[in-house]
Amino acid sequence: MRCHYTPARAWEPLSEEEWTALAPFIRRQGPGRPVRDPRARLDACFRAATSGEAWARIEASPFRPDTVHRQFRRWAHAGLWTRLLRAVARRRPPVVLRRLAHWICRAYRRALRLLGLAGIVLARRLGLLSALPGPPWMLPDPDLSATVFRALGRALQRLREELGEPWPRPSILRARRALLRRYRRVLGIVAGRRWIPRCLASA
Predict the structure, then answer these.
(1) What's the predicted TM-score (pTM) here?
(2) pLDDT tens, 38-57?
(3) Whose C-alpha in 57, 78, 96, 190 is 20 to 30 A from the C-alpha of 175?
(4) How far apart, in whole angstroms, are the C-alpha atoms of residue 192 and residue 3?
(5) Are both 80 and 161 inside the same structural domain?
């Protein structure tokens, strides 16, 4: 999978063609009332996602910011942003979805607080770097962590075998301590940064 950033695109109201392409992804959840004016709400969500502003500061007429925020969260829990991200990551997505790729990535990135680590892993595996909340090297990488843990397990097994000797050589002990320190540093890297500078997170 080729990793890449999507070309930036400023927000504008959805066209008829774009709404027609997106509408099938919005599924009705449960027996409650259907979403009133889903097109306008989706428009407002994309506007919020591309702005990067706090929800309370977003002017999302004809809805209040808290209404848009609740709808965004409902759609996140219903899997809308994940379905859209998977759709634009296909080998040959429709031209309309390719035009919307940046908006979809920004909306998905904003939903990562709800999607958690599994959401970061999915964006990594799909190769859509614009859907990540920062540079990949600053974020957790569970796939790489699993590889490092397997290598560490083999190193510890060798260490146990060598330490089973009656008088392990000092050189062996020094080398293994240095090896374990290196593994510790690598595990710290693949665990990701606790804080990402805003200038890097807004790319």
Answers:
(1) 0.76
(2) 999 999 999 999 988 878 77
(3) 190
(4) 18
(5) no
